[in-house]
TrEMBL record:
Keyword entries, A-Z: 4Fe-4S, Carbohydrate metabolism, Gluconate utilization, Iron, Iron-sulfur, Lyase, Metal-binding
EC number(s) recorded for this UniProt protein: 4.2.1.12
Protein name per UniProt: Phosphogluconate dehydratase
Amino-acid positions noted as binding [4Fe-4S] cluster in the UniProt annotation, renumbered to this chain: 156, 223
Domain Dihydroxy-acid/6-phosphogluconate dehydratase C-terminal, first and last residues per copy: 409-602
Similarity comment: family membership: Belongs to the IlvD/Edd family.
Described function: Catalyzes the dehydration of 6-phospho-D-gluconate to 2-dehydro-3-deoxy-6-phospho-D-gluconate.
Recorded superkingdom: Bacteria
Cofactors that this protein relies on: [4Fe-4S] cluster
Biological source species: Aureimonas populi
Coiled coil location: none
Catalytic activity: 6-phospho-D-gluconate = 2-dehydro-3-deoxy-6-phospho-D-gluconate + H2O
Short name of one Pfam family: ILVD_EDD_N
Amino acid sequence: MAADSRIEAITRRIAERSAPTREAYLERIEAKGAEGPKRSRLNCGNLAHGFAACGPSDKARLAGDVTPNLGIITAYNDMLSAHQPYERYPELIRQAAREVGATAQVASGVPAMCDGVTQGQGGMELSLFSRDVIAMAAAVGLSHDMYDAAVYLGICDKIVPGLAIAALTFGHLPAIFVPAGPMTSGLPNDEKARIRQLYAEGKVGREALLEAESKSYHGPGTCTFYGTANSNQMLMEIMGLHMPGASFVNPNTPLRDALTREATKRALSITALGNEFTPIGHVVDEKAVVNGVVGLHATGGSTNHVMHLVAIAAAAGIKLTWADISDLSDVTPLLARVYPNGLADVNHFEAAGGMGFLIRELLSAGLLHEDVRTAFGHGLSAYTVEAKLSPDGHGVVRSPAPAVSGDEKVLTTADKPFSANGGLKMLKGNMGKAVIKVSAVKPERRIVEAPARVFEDQDDLQSAFKAGELTGDFVAVVRFQGPRSNGMPELHKLTPTLGVLLDRGQKVALVTDGRMSGASGKVPAAIHVTPEAKEGGAIGRIRDGDMIRLDGESGELSILVSEEELMARPVAQADLSRNEHGLGRELFAVFRNAVGPADLGASVF
């Protein structure tokens, strides 16, 4: 099943660009993999430390090198609703390993912060950097070199990308990502958004807002809107790193536990000790990366992944660019409408046919590479299924994905897409580069040419709104929000405010070197502007009243002043001292100083 020629051409150019770094990466992981299990060569004191806390049967197995040992990297904490179900996973995994005569150990825990809790707060300035901290923390655990494979327990925004970077750094090991699933549906997302706007306008109080939020985020599991967390799960499945059909099964259900046991046994079956050795460094190749990008576009996924996928690919020696991502968007139809791109949530998406339906439709249209290795086996066709509980209530059985969508307003076919393209585009102009997600923006709002209103903090914009100063058409420029300035926080606090102005009939857009992620919604937003203001980017030369053109159709982002005038202006300076201390920010100064630009993944590596 050959991919569309346009998909093939983009994949080929990525492979050609990446050839030197990819070849060096594969040589490194193959040399490491050839060494075999390290346990047999550890000094006795080293090995004794490694299994001191194990029971007698596990010690006996670990003393040799003929039975596999599975490393568990867990992002469990019980403050994140998405990660709370992981509390019981280690014992579930250990028991499943023992059933096949193997062992499993928690190799390390990694930090996991909730962007929902830190949204608009100082802690959000650590969020993006937490991705690279997670990668390093996972590496510390795996550095004990006691493991033949690893399973990764993570869901949310920076956590899965960080775990993926770590897994690929240890690319000689097989790896499977094990989700926990979304919470059951609560207050509809459009109603939650309505209450937020009413609160922003002062028409309802905090009590009504808290009640709405609590009905929306109400139990264990991932938040049900299609932001970065659920985009992560889609990516892990379409890139072949989940068990088929695993992404969107609710927590604490018999099927969820059965999928976790299956993932454990599968990881143990694909080690170098068996006949199906499948290291993750070979699973995540150029074709798998392209499949991930196509999945992102076909579902209207999070803009955060224009950074995360670049960083993940780089960890595998692959050079992915924003131009690649934008070009893939142009040829990928939008097949899913999940909030903020529609009214449904991910439970409705799953009920309509879920990942199995989506992958089958994309494969049938030639928009995915079928000939890939996956953690489940060869070929992506194995993922065109839905998972069900076996009759004995302990295992997993699979059947073909539904032939017809259960709800054509949520999930459609490739020949009847919601949109001809994925709606994620790279913008270019004299301001530099940026990205925009237009899949949730009405066509008549995708082109804005209006005077700039410049802010250097999102709170300043909020104050101007409350003072009634944001009248007429304008482009809000919120700068000094890039990774080197303050860690590149998400600016979700701006969405309700700007949404109110849109509803009043004003033409409004946002331009920022910060982030908005998968919940940017109906406001046209040019985000991740690079070079950022702190690095002397042109966004730092904008003045109030400058005409800004944001064209989400053609891909233009320009300051409509002459090049001579623009370059003659000094770059603005901002007092960022308050962003350097408190809530741990002082510990991250080295990250702010070392981080690379957004279009290269905003990484410290």
